[in-house]
C-alpha cells in the first residue's frame, strides 16, 4: 500500500490518470476532496502510479491558497497560523462572512485590506493577534496587556476596582489581560500597568 500526496490534481483527474496504469478501481482510493491518493498493488505498479501522479501534479497549475466565503473568524485563524501568532478574537466575528481569495502576500497587508472592507479592530503584539468587532460606540476599544513582570494577584485586585469585570478577562496562562471598554478607561489602565 502506498500514499501519494497531491496538491494540484483533483480527485477525478487522479482517478482518470491512474486508470491508465492501474486498471482495477478497487486498488485506488481518492477522497472526494482530493489531496491524497491511496494505492494498493505490486511494487512495480505502485512505483509507476506514483511517478505518474507526481509528474501530473507538478505540471498542473497550482491551486491558489484560497479562503472563499468564510467567516472572519476562520480567516483570522488562518492568518494567525501563517503569522505563527496566538489568536484572541471576538466570537461575533464568526457571524460575519467575507469572500477572500488568498494568493501570495504579506498577512499584515491582507489584514489592512480586510480592515478597509469590514470594521474590525486588529492589534498585533509579539506573540498575539487580537481581533475585535467594534461596538456601535466609536469610543469602545479592545486592548491586550502583557503582564510578564507584574504580581498577578495584586494587579487583578487593583484592576477590578478600575474596570467593570464583565469587560475584562485574564488569559488562561494568566500572563495577559484583555480589556474592553471606553478608550479613556483602556488607556488609563495601560498607564497604570506600565
Write the layout of secondary structure elements.
Layout (H helix, E strand, L loop, with lengths): L1 E4 L5 H8 L9 E2 L6 E4 L3 H17 L7 E5 H12 L2 E4 L7 E4 L6 H11 L3 E4 L3 E5 L7 E7 L5 H11 L5 E3 L5 E7 H11 L1
Parallel strand pairs: 5-8
Antiparallel strand pairs: 1-3, 2-3, 4-6, 7-8, 9-11, 10-11
- Biggest sheet, open or closed, and with what strands and sense? 3 strands, antiparallel
Order of helices and strands: EHEEHEHEEHEEEHEEH
- What is the CA–CA distance across the termini? 60 Å
Q: Please give the count of helices.
A: 6
Mean pLDDT: 75
Helical amount: 25-40%
Total domain units: 2
User: Which fold does the CATH topology of the largest domain refer to?
Assistant: Phage tail protein beta-alpha-beta fold
Neighbour order of strands in the largest sheet:
1-3-2
Structural class: alpha+beta
Query: What is the CATH class name of the largest domain?
Result: Alpha Beta
The CATH level-2 architecture of the largest domain is identified as: 3-Layer(bab) Sandwich
| Portion in strands | 25-35%
What is the tally of beta strands?
11
Low-confidence segments, given as residue ranges, are: 62-67
Kindly provide the radius of gyration, computed on alpha-carbon positions and rounded to a whole number of angstroms.
25 Å
Amino acid at each position: 500500500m502506498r500514499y501519494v500526496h497531491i496538491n494540484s490534481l483533483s480527485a477525478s483527474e487522479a482517478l482518470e490518470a491512474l486508470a491508465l496504469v492501474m486498471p482495477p478501481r478497487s486498488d485506488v482510493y481518492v477522497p472526494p476532496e482530493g489531496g491524497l491518493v491511496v494505492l494498493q498493488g505490486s511494487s512495480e505498479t505502485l512505483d509507476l502510479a506514483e511517478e505518474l501522479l507526481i509528474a501530473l501534479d507538478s505540471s498542473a497549475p497550482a491551486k491558489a491558497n484560497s479562503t472563499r466565503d468564510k467567516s472572519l473568524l476562520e480567516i483570522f485563524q488562518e492568518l494567525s497560523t501563517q503569522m505563527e501568532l496566538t489568536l484572541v478574537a471576538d466570537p461575533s466575528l464568526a457571524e460575519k462572512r467575507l469572500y477572500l481569495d488568498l494568493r501570495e502576500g504579506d498577512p499584515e497587508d491582507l489584514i489592512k485590506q480586510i480592515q478597509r472592507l469590514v470594521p474590525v479592530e486588529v492589534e498585533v503584539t509579539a506573540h498575539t493577534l487580537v481581533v475585535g468587532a467594534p461596538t456601535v460606540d466609536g469610543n469602545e476599544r479592545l486592548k491586550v496587556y502583557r503582564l510578564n513582570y507584574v504580581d498577578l494577584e495584586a494587579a487583578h485586585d487593583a484592576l477590578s476596582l478600575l474596570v467593570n469585570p464583565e469587560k475584562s478577562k485574564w488569559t488562561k496562562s494568566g500572563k495577559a489581560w484583555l480589556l474592553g471598554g471606553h478608550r479613556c478607561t483602556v488607556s488609563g489602565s495601560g498607564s497604570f500597568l506600565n
